[in-house]
Amino acid sequence: MLEGLRDVAALPDPVGEISELRVRPNGLQVGRMRIPLGVIGIIYESRPNVTVDAAALCVKAGNAVILRGGSEAIHSNRALGEVLRTAARETGVPEDAVCVVPTTDRAAIDVLLRADRDIDLIIPRGGPGLIKKVSEESRIPVIKHDAGVCHVYIDASADAEMARRIVLDSKLRQMAVCNGLETLLCHVDAARTVLPGVLKALHEEGVELRGCERTREIFADAQPATEEDWPAEYLDKILAVKIVDDRGIESLRVIPLD
Question: What distance in Å separates the CA atoms of residue 117 and residue 46, rounded to the nearest whole number?
Answer without folding.
Answer: 28
